[in-house]
Each structure stands twice: as structure tokens, then as C-alpha cells.
Amino acid sequence: FRNVENLDSLLTARITTALFADERIKARWVGVATSDGHVILNGNVDSEDARDAAEAIARAVPGVRTLQNDLQLLAPPQALPTASGIRRVTE
Fold this sequence. Notes:
two-stranded antiparallel ribbon
């Protein structure tokens, strides 16, 4: 069992690293769960392009046996006025 856990941890790390490397994906919003090579992506993305890209990136990592994409599409962040008049984006 320990060997499978180590492989799953390595696979999760590789997928997470690959997601962070892609500018289309706000990887801090994406969770990766791995069990015996079966991967689940969960969390939020801000576009269909980001959702599709995350799935393609995860599938391309060697060792992924199956992938379940549970990423949810969120509306883009809203810009709010501030006291200084400069608009700030909320997430």
C-alpha cells in the first residue's frame, strides 16, 4: 500500500505543478485527488477554456489511469470601486 500512496502523491504533485505552469488556470482554485492512478479534479475555474485545459493537462501526465473533472465554472471576478477611485478586482 505504501508504494501506491507514494505513486499517488507523486502523480498529484506532477499534475499540480503542470496546472500551476499554465496561465489559463488559476491553479490555487483547483484541487487534485489521486487514488491508484485515478484522478479527480475539483474546485473552481473562471472559463470553459480553463476547465478543458486543466483536464487535458492532467490527462497528459504519465500514470493517470482515469480522470474525473468536477471543476465548477465561476463567473469572472467583479471589479469594485475603492475610495481612491482605482478599481480593485475581488476573487
